[in-house]
Amino acid sequence: MYPAQSPVVPARLLGLVSLLFIGWAAMAAADSRNFGNGRLIPAENYCDQPRIVVTRDGTWVCILTTGPGNEGEEGQHVGATSSQDKGKTWSRLVDVEPPDKEKRSAYALALITPADRIYAFYCYNGDAIRTLPDGKPIRDDMQGWCVFRYSDDKGATWSDRHRLPMRLTAVDRGNEWQGRLQMWWAIGTPTVFDGKVMFGFTKLGKYILQNGEGWFFRSDNVLTERDPAKLDWQLLPDGDHGVRLPEFGSVQEEFDLVHLEKEDLYCVYRTTMGHAGSAYSRDGGHTWSKPDALRYEPNGRMMKQSRACTKIWKTKNGRYLLWFHNNGTTTYNNGINAGSRNLGWLSGGQLQNGKVIWSQPEIVTYVENGLLGCSYPDLVEDEGKYYICATQKTEARVQEVDKSLLESLWKQSENHVVASDGLELNLAGAQCAATTTARTPRLEPLCGDIQRRKSRDDNAGGLTLDVAVQFSDLMPGQVILDSRDGAGRGYVLKTGERATVRLEMSDGWQATFWDSDAGLLKTNALHHIVATVDGRSKVICFVIDGVLGDGGAERQFGYGRFNPTFKEISGSRKLQLAPQLHGELKHVRLYSRALRTSEAVGNFHVP
Length: 607
What we know:
The protein is mainly beta.
């Protein structure tokens, strides 16, 4: 998806200033967002859904699905490994459920109790049904029993297998086996509240991956009861039908949930509608609201999502985090939509009037030089630090997340500070008069310095252009800023078709561009436009009037990717200001790095 080839600070704000500085300084070293910089978790070959719990002495125990072949193939099973150094090194894999040719196991969730007992809940093909009723062979890793084993020695050994009572419902009775076989799987993290535990999963009504709906297991005593025979399990919601909205189509799956307050719960899940779904329960999961698209705020803009895992967590500080892929593709990470999982994004959430309000998102992980991406993440909190583990299906890795990135998400609406780190040019008023020229710095190559970079993208450069502009008309081709030399090297910001602004750049032998979302610009209105070029993740994006572009109604992606070999784009280093602008340029800020989304939003908040 390369566009060129296809397409005086108040005292109360000093904390925010320090926070943003720490975040930027951290990025000058190894990029914590780079999946390749993460620590590898042991696996046989295929690996999926790494789920990590932390014991009282600080041991990490990771439960994951693995196998010698590919996803769904023979030998797939649930295993576990542990780490004493926060994921830097790991023990050898042990079997939670040993491989069995006839009885596949997969897709485990992990729960740790106050007594340090670790539970693994997973799919187990206990009846060894491996064909359709007509005898045709089937993939058999998303069916059968819901079972669990537990460990009281930090994952070194595991108990006998126990089965949860998954009652038959309409979706089961309507499948090819009329309920003799139940098709289901889970991806979530159990949510714990008031001594109770709940986790979500998907039931399927037709082989394979059709007619999905959301269900939840709830136990009010699993955190304290040590006798597995005395555990209390409820299958929710009440009645015969799970959480789904017919208008969202057949694919409604991979349900995950968090506790809000009292008996209030919130679930999210994936669809093929170009967005995720969501629903609320106000009675502990017994009944659920009519699902809606996942939105930044009630009745607000939908959060775009491909057919990929949508994960939600409640952190120890009582805030929320949402993982999604921030694009509107409708299939898996393959074919023409390859790359739909390459970027993992996080939004920070806060509870307001019983609903979760989400921030503009930030990139939290990317995969170098590839269209394939990582997903199915889990969040680990340990000693005030945050980590995310995710998988590419052949590699599972754990990465520490820059804490300042998360804090900036949660405090995004409070940020009214102009970012100062990397600010090379800051002009306003008469300094921005049309045809004025300003001297700009040499920029680091977007492909980084091969001789000194630790990882391919760790030393790659970046650029951010921040302008306030008022247009008298929106004729395409109006040049707002231009650094290009006689050979065309450099960058130019100008108006595009359909009320957009376009950033073009060239290193002298290749060029690329990206447009903002259509229809956002208006005449005789002051617009704040931030165009960011991130040389590490190879992303161009726009934040216009405090909102990150998502592609709007016309495009699946609101961000563009550029070629990893892109070199220096400094151009003439003489920046022409408004040489062809029908309107007025109010301010210009140029940064020799990529601003975070939260920084761009903060700049917008400053008058």
